[in-house]
Amino acid sequence: MKFIETLREGERVGDIYLCKFRQAAVTKNGKSYENVILQDKTGTLDAKIWEPNSQGIDDFEVLDYVYVVGDVTSFQGALQLNIKRVRKANEGEYEPADFLPVSHRDIDEMYQELLQLIGQIQDPYLKQLTDSYFVTNENFIKAFKFHSAAKSVHHGFVGGLLEHTLNVMKLCEYYANQYSFLNRDLLYTAAAFHDVGKIRELSAFPENDYTDDGQLLGHIVMGVELVGASIRRIPGFPKKLSSELKHCILAHHGELEYGSPKKPALAEALALNFADNTDAKMETFKEALASGGDNTDWLGYNRLFESNIRKTSI
Amino acid sequence: MKFIETLREGERVGDIYLCKFRQAAVTKNGKSYENVILQDKTGTLDAKIWEPNSQGIDDFEVLDYVYVVGDVTSFQGALQLNIKRVRKANEGEYEPADFLPVSHRDIDEMYQELLQLIGQIQDPYLKQLTDSYFVTNENFIKAFKFHSAAKSVHHGFVGGLLEHTLNVMKLCEYYANQYSFLNRDLLYTAAAFHDVGKIRELSAFPENDYTDDGQLLGHIVMGVELVGASIRRIPGFPKKLSSELKHCILAHHGELEYGSPKKPALAEALALNFADNTDAKMETFKEALASGGDNTDWLGYNRLFESNIRKTSI
Amino acid sequence: MKFIETLREGERVGDIYLCKFRQAAVTKNGKSYENVILQDKTGTLDAKIWEPNSQGIDDFEVLDYVYVVGDVTSFQGALQLNIKRVRKANEGEYEPADFLPVSHRDIDEMYQELLQLIGQIQDPYLKQLTDSYFVTNENFIKAFKFHSAAKSVHHGFVGGLLEHTLNVMKLCEYYANQYSFLNRDLLYTAAAFHDVGKIRELSAFPENDYTDDGQLLGHIVMGVELVGASIRRIPGFPKKLSSELKHCILAHHGELEYGSPKKPALAEALALNFADNTDAKMETFKEALASGGDNTDWLGYNRLFESNIRKTSI
Amino acid sequence: MKFIETLREGERVGDIYLCKFRQAAVTKNGKSYENVILQDKTGTLDAKIWEPNSQGIDDFEVLDYVYVVGDVTSFQGALQLNIKRVRKANEGEYEPADFLPVSHRDIDEMYQELLQLIGQIQDPYLKQLTDSYFVTNENFIKAFKFHSAAKSVHHGFVGGLLEHTLNVMKLCEYYANQYSFLNRDLLYTAAAFHDVGKIRELSAFPENDYTDDGQLLGHIVMGVELVGASIRRIPGFPKKLSSELKHCILAHHGELEYGSPKKPALAEALALNFADNTDAKMETFKEALASGGDNTDWLGYNRLFESNIRKTSI
Amino acid sequence: MKFIETLREGERVGDIYLCKFRQAAVTKNGKSYENVILQDKTGTLDAKIWEPNSQGIDDFEVLDYVYVVGDVTSFQGALQLNIKRVRKANEGEYEPADFLPVSHRDIDEMYQELLQLIGQIQDPYLKQLTDSYFVTNENFIKAFKFHSAAKSVHHGFVGGLLEHTLNVMKLCEYYANQYSFLNRDLLYTAAAFHDVGKIRELSAFPENDYTDDGQLLGHIVMGVELVGASIRRIPGFPKKLSSELKHCILAHHGELEYGSPKKPALAEALALNFADNTDAKMETFKEALASGGDNTDWLGYNRLFESNIRKTSI
Amino acid sequence: MKFIETLREGERVGDIYLCKFRQAAVTKNGKSYENVILQDKTGTLDAKIWEPNSQGIDDFEVLDYVYVVGDVTSFQGALQLNIKRVRKANEGEYEPADFLPVSHRDIDEMYQELLQLIGQIQDPYLKQLTDSYFVTNENFIKAFKFHSAAKSVHHGFVGGLLEHTLNVMKLCEYYANQYSFLNRDLLYTAAAFHDVGKIRELSAFPENDYTDDGQLLGHIVMGVELVGASIRRIPGFPKKLSSELKHCILAHHGELEYGSPKKPALAEALALNFADNTDAKMETFKEALASGGDNTDWLGYNRLFESNIRKTSI
C-alpha cells in the first residue's frame, strides 16, 4: 500500500485508509462538502469530498476502513486529498496494524526486557502480584502490549504503554543502583503498575480516546483499585506493604495539581515520580523535535515546555 | 467529677483525667520536669510535674486515665496544673465518655435523622448499598456514630463524623428540592458515603490521630475503595452508576489542590462539594467564634479564613 | 410568531426579530456581505445578507426590531438565515417581551416569595432599609424585576437578578435555620442587596451590557454606595450595623482575586458568599447541561468548571 | 527628658514614657512578672517589672503616660528596662508630641508643598472638591496632618499620611510632565485623595491601630465613599468624571489580590498605582536599612522584599 | 512617497515599500495566491497577489524593498492592497529610514540628554565604564541609537532603546533627588546599562526579531556579561561595586517569574526596577490608547493590563 | 579524639572541637551566660558556659578550634555540654579534616569517576574547555573537591559539590544512553559545569556560608560568567555551541521561579534539569530519613516535600 508519509502533490491515490473523522460542512458560498481525516501508521491526511453526489459518500462512518480514489493537492503548505469516490473496505482487504501509529521499537523485545526486570523482584508477595499480571494473565498481557500511554502528547501509539512502562522501570533500576536506600522490590512493582489504569482510562485502538471511567475516575485511582483487588486475592499480603504500593501509584504525578491526591511520602514514591516525569517529558521533547523534521531553526512556542524550542547545533 | 472548663486559679484538684500527652523537659536552669496534657470532654489542661520525685511519676503513660492531685495556677493568661502526685486509675473508676469531646447534639437522634434521609433513596441498587452499611452493618454503625470528622479543625469530637454527614445530607436535601435537575438518589448516596473513609484515616478515640493508611492513601481514596468493594457484592449494580457514585466521592473536595484527583464533572458531584465545603467552613467559623468566649471584639487573624474575624454586633 | 428554536433547515421565514448585531464583511473572493445576529426569547440565529442590493439593507441598526424574509440553511452543523429582504418593524407590530430571554419562573410569583422572606426581618433599621427599596420604591422594584444578573454566564435573562437574589435568600434562610449562630436579619438584608449594584453595572434589556460605571467601579462597590446613601437617610441607624452590612456586600465574592476587596470576617458574610457561589454555579451547570439538549454523552471541556462535563445516567 | 534612643546599659532611668503595652506573665519557675513596652518619639523599649509588689504596679494602663524608675540592662543584645517603681503621670507633666514617632520633615512645610500642587488643579469641579477638603475643612486638615499612613511598615508615624501623600503627588507631577497624555487634574486629585480613607481605617495616635470600620471595609472603599459623598454636594459635577476619580482610588493598589476590586483601566489609575507603590516600597526599604544602623553587612531576610538586603558599598 | 497611513480605499498605488512578510496560500476554492505584508515607517499593510502570473512575483524576498503597483480595497474593515505587479527596488531608489517605525522624538536630542545625565556620574570607575560605552565607542553608540527596545509591545521602533533608557534614567534622576539614601552614581550607571543586552537579544532593523542568543540567554544575562567584560579591562575597579552593578542589572525585572534570577537586594536595584517597569507600562498604555485613534469608548480587553481600557473623559 | 556522635549523658569531656557559633545571652532571671555550638565531622553539639568567670571565656572566637572541659547533660531530649573551662587550641594539636562534615564516599575515587566521564567528551572545543578546569587547573581541582554543594539542605559537606556533580553526570550518562537524540558531549559538559558557580556562591569550609557575590549574583550567573571567560580563551570555539552550553547552565533550575532566567529550550538543558533535580531531591530525602535514625514511624511534616514522610516498611 501507499503510506501517507510517502504521498506527494499531484499524485492520484487508490488505496485503503482508516477514516479517523468525518463531518459535513458548507463553504462561504453555501456549497456543501465533507471534511474527512484519513490515517495510517505513518500519519494522517486531511481530505475533502467536494461533490455531494460523490460515489459512496453515504456508505462509511468514522473508524471504518475505506477504499478511496482521489487526487493529492496542496493547501496552505499541507497536503490534502480531493476524494472522488469512496467505499467501505471489506475485512481481509487490509491489515489493521498498518493503520495505527506504532512504537518504533519491537514490542516483543520490549516485553522481554520488562519481564527481565520484573524477574528481579524478590519479595514473595510483590512477586506473586506482578506475576499474576505480567506473566500469567494472557488477556492483560495482550491488552498491555497493544495499548497507548496517551490520547496524544507522549507515547500515543500502539505499544506506547509498554514502552513508557519499560523506560520508567529502567530509570528505577538505575535509581535503585545509585541510591541504595531505595527498596528495589517496591520500586519495581510500583513502576510496573503505575499506569496500568490507562488500560481502562483510554479505549483500545483504533479509537484510543478517553472512556467514561477515564473521565470520571482517571487512571491513577483505577490503577489503585485494580491492584487492590488483586492484593485481596493473595493470602497473607502484608497490610503495610499494600498501602505503600498503592501510595506509590497514587503519588506518582508528584503534585496535587497534577492529579495525585497525595504527595510522595516514601522515597520510592518520589523516585517513581521522577522516573515517570523524566520519561514523559523526554519523549514529549523528542516528539516535538521530530515534528519539526530537518528544521534546525526555532520551532515556535511549545505550551508544555513554556518556551520556544529548537534542535541543538552539534 | 470536676470538669476542666470549670476549674479556676487557686483551686486544689483531686480527680481523674485522660493523659493526652507527656514528655520530659529541662528548665533553663537545668532542672528536669514533665510536661503533661490532661483532657476531659470539656477541654484540655496543661500540667507540669516540677518535682522529679513526685509520687507516681513513673507509673503512667499517654492515653492512660490518671488520678492527679495538684494546684491550679495561671501562666501567661492560661490555666496550668501543678501536679503533686499521680496514679493510674483503675477501670471502673471512670466513665470513658466523660473524657472525650463530644457533639452537643444527641447522637441517636442524629442517626435517626440520617436514616430518615437514607430511607428516601428509591434506586434499588443505591438503596441496597446504603442499607448494607447504615442499616444492617452493626460494626460500621457503631464506629460511624463514635468517630470524629477531623483530628482538630471542625467536628473533631465523638459523633463529629455523624453530625457532619447529617448536615451535608440535609444541605443536599435542600439542593435536590431547589435544583430539580439534580438526581436525589445519587446525591444522597454520595453524601452518606463521602467521608466514610475517615473511619480508616483517623484512629478511634481517645487517640483520634492519623493512621498509617490515612497518611499514605487519605480518606477520599479509601472511601472509594470501600464503596467499590461493596458494589462488587451487589449483583447487577449498573457499571455507569458505580462510576458516577465513586466520582462524586473522589471529587468532593472540589479542587485538585485540595486532594480531589478529579474536578466535579457531574452536577451531583458539584452539589456535594458545595454541601461539604459549606458545612465544614460554617462549623469551623462557629468553633472559632466559640473559642473567643464572650469576646465581642476582634479575635485575631484566622489562618483558614485569611482574615481577622469577630462576632456580629446584633 | 415563529420562534427561533422551532426553525428547521429549508424553511422560508417571514417574521419579526430583534437585531442583536450587524457588521459588514467581505468573502475570500472579495464580495461584500452583512453578518447579522437575530434574537428572540428562545435563542439567537446567525444570518447573512449576501446581496449588497437586498431590499432594506440600509434601513436598520443594531437593537432595532426588524421584519426579515429569508431561507433557513445549515452551515457547519448550525442553522443560518439567508436574508432576502428586511425592513425595520413599527412599534405595535411586536411585543418586546417576545424577543428577550426570560426566566422560566413567573416573575411576580418570585417577587412575592422574596417579599415574604424580607418580611421576616425584625430589626427595625434593617427592616426600614429593605422596605425602602423592595416595598415602597416603585422604580427600583420595576427595574429589579426586569434586570438580568449577568451579561452571559448565569441568570443572563429578564428576571435573572430577581431569580438569583431569591435563590440566594432561600439558601440563607436554610443556613439561618441550620446554623443558629447566624444573625437572620443581617443575613437576609445582605442577601437582598448583595447584587443590587448590577442594576447599574449592566444596562437594561435589550442591551444588557456593561455600563461605563460597571467597568470602572463594579457592582460590588456601587451596591455598597447605594446602600450607604440610603442608610444615611435613616435616623439612628447603628454605625456598627451599617459597616457590618456593607462588609457582607463587599465580601460576598469571597476572595480578593474574585473582586471582593475584603475577605469575609463575619459569619454572615461567609454564609452569603456560600449562598451566592452555590446558586451561581448550580445555575451555570444547569444552563451548560441544558445547552447540550438531549445529549447524554460528554459535552466537552467547560472552562468555568475546568472539566469535561456530562449529564448523570440515572 | 532622656529619649529612648539615647539610653545605655547600666543607666538608672527616672522619666516619663508612654505605656504602649502591658501584660502579666509567669517565669518558667512560676514567678509572676509584668511585660511592659514603653515608647517615646525616638523608639520603643522593652521593660519588665519583676517584683509583684513593685510600687505603682496596679495604677496604670495601656496608653497611659507613666513616670518610671528603673535600671537599663541588656538581654540578648537588646536593651531592657528593669522597672523598680512606677506611677501614672499627670497632664501637664509631659508633652504628648514627645512620645509619638514623627516625620523627620516639618509638617507645615510639607503641607504647603501639598497645597502648591493642589493649587495647580484647573478643572473647576475637581478644584472645588479638593479645596473643600484640603483648603477649607479645618477638622480634616488637622486630622490629615497628624495621621500615620500605616500601623507599622512604612510611614507609620505622625505626619506619615501627609508625607506619603505629598511624595505620591510629586511623583504624579513628574509623571504628568514626562507622559503628556496623562490628565494632570484627574491625576493630582486622585493622588490627593488616594489614602484619605486611612483617617478612618486607623485610629489617631497614640493608638494608631485598625478601627472596626478599617477591618470591615478598608481605606480604599471608605475613601471612595467619602469622596462620593462630597461630590454629591457639588452641583453639576460631571457623572463620568466622578466615576473616573473613584476608579483611580479603587484601583490604586493595582491588583485584585492587593485589595483593589478593579484593575487600572485608565492611564491615570495606572500612574497613581505606580506612584503609590514606588513611594511605599522606597520608604519601606529606607526604614529597613535605617533599622540596621551602621551595619554595612547583610541585614537578614526581609519578608516584604523576599530577599536578604544590605546597604550599598559606595 | 505615499505613506501607508495616508492610503484610502479605491486608490491606485505605485510606490516602494519594505516587504516584511510573504507566504504562498490557497483559497477555499483551490486557487493559489500570495499573502504579503508591506511596511513603511507609518505602519503596515496587508496585500494579496491574486494572479499567479503577476509580473515580478518571483523576483523578491522578505526584507526586500519592492516597487508595487496595485489597488487599495477594504476587507473586514481594514485596508488591503490588491497587487497587480511588483519589482525589487534598487538601492538609491529609496531612503531606508522611511520604511521603519521610528521614535517621535529626535534621536540626537535624546542622546544629548542621556549624555548630560551620564556626565553627572562622579565615581571614577563608574565614569570610566559608562564613558567607554556611551562616549567613546562609536560602534556601540550607533547601534544603541538605532535599536528598538522590543519586538513589539513597547518602544518597538528605531530609537526605542535610547528613548526607554533615557526615560528610565530621568526617573532615576527624580528618585535620586527624592530619596536621598540612593547612590546616584550606581543608580545612573545601572540605568544606562540595564537594557544594553537588547542590542544582542534583538537583531537590528528592519528585521528586529529575537536572535538565537536572545532566545537562549536573554538580554539580562547578556547585559551582565557585556558589562562584566568591560569592567575586567578597568584596572582597580572595586570588586564589590562590580557585583552591585551587575546585581542591579540582573534584578531589574523585579521578580523571578519575570526573568530576573535575583530579587532586588539593594535600594538602587529596587529603584531601577520601578523606573523600568513604570516607563515600560506607561509607554505600553500610551501605545494601546493611540491604537484606538479618536475612539473615546472602551477599547476592549487588554491582556497585559488584564482589563478593558479606555481614554479618560477630560 | 572523642567524636560528638559518641558522647553520652553524664560523661566528662576534655577535647578539641571547632567553635561554629558563640553568643552572649541572659537567663529569665537576669544571669549572663554564653551560647556556644561545637562541631566535628560527626555532628554539632549545643554548649553553654553558665559561669561568667569561667576560665578562657574571653580567649576564643567563632571558627576557632578550642579545647573544652565540661560535662554532658541532657535538655529537652538533646545532649548539651556544660562547659567548665576552655582555651584556644594551637595549630598542630588538631587535624582540621576531623572537624568538618564530609562525604561518606572517598573523594579521590569520586574524582576519578568524574574524570572518566569527562574523558568521553569528543568535541574538541568542549574537551579543551573541560580539560582546562578538571584536568589541568590544580587550584580549581583542589577547591572543587573540597567544596560543599549547599549551606545546609543537600550535600552540605566537604566533597558535596563533587559528589553531586558526579551523580548528575552519571544520570546524564544514563539519559544519553537511553534517549539517543541527546548530544552526549554538550550534556556532559553542561553537567560538569552546572554548579561550579557554587565555588564562589559559598565560602570554603569551615565557614561554608553565602558570600556577598553569592547573594548578589547567585551561582547560576557566576557559573555562566566563569565558563564564558574560559571560552573566550579558546580560539575558534563555535559561537552557537557557546550559547547552547551557557543556556544549559542558565536553565538548569528548570523554572523561572527557581532562579533560572530561562526555561529549558534544548533537550540537553531539559535533561540536565532532571538530573540536577533528581539527585538533589533524592539526596535530601535520604538525609531527612537518616536524621530520623532508626525511627520507622512518621518523621513529621517536611517542608520541602510538603508531606509527612517515613521509612518504607520492607
TrEMBL record, chains A, B, C, D, E, F:
GO terms for biological process: rRNA 3'-end processing. One of its GO terms (molecular function) is hydrolase activity. InterPro entries: HD/PDEase_dom, HD_domain, HDIG_dom, NA-bd_OB-fold, YhaM_exoribonuc/phosphodiest. Keywords: Hydrolase. Residues 161-281 form the HD domain. The keyword Hydrolase applies. It comes from the Bacteria. Gene3D superfamilies: Hypothetical protein af1432, Nucleic acid-binding proteins. SUPFAM superfamilies: HD-domain/PDEase-like, Nucleic acid-binding proteins. Pfam families: HD (PF01966). This is 3'-5' exoribonuclease.
